[in-house]
Design a protein that fits this description.
DNA binding, Transposase, transposase activity, 2 domains, Transposase_17_sf, mainly alpha
């Protein structure tokens, strides 16, 4: 399954239960306006560099980084609270929105 920024933004826009919808869309729009490479929204960080995930320690480090991003951004207090992340599967007592294969 492939998730693009367009698909993720559509999911956010169409989710009437998401209380932070307007705030998230505003953040992505402002980021897009501040980057001349974008037409409208910026969802992913620009100028990324690929990292080969060839050791368990590297994989765990990157998983921790991904799960901690919403906490660092102040969106949620705990990794398990962000519904658009697998953090709920790894740190919570529930399953997330989509089925995952644990690493």
């Amino acid at each position: 399954m492939k998730f693009t920024s367009v698909e993720i933004l559509k999911e956010i826009e169409n989710n009437s239960a998401e209380s932070r919808k307007n705030w998230m869309l505003w953040i992505f729009k402002k980021a897009g306006e501040n980057n001349h490479r974008n037409k409208e929204f910026q969802f992913w960080q620009q100028d990324n560099h690929p990292i080969e995930l060839d050791h368990d320690e590297i994989i765990q480090s990157k998983m921790d980084y991904l799960h901690e991003n919403p906490v660092r951004a102040g969106i949620v207090r705990m990794e398990k609270d962000y519904i658009y992340s697998s953090g709920i599967d790894y740190y919570g007592d529930e399953n997330g929105l989509i089925e995952i294969n644990f690493l």
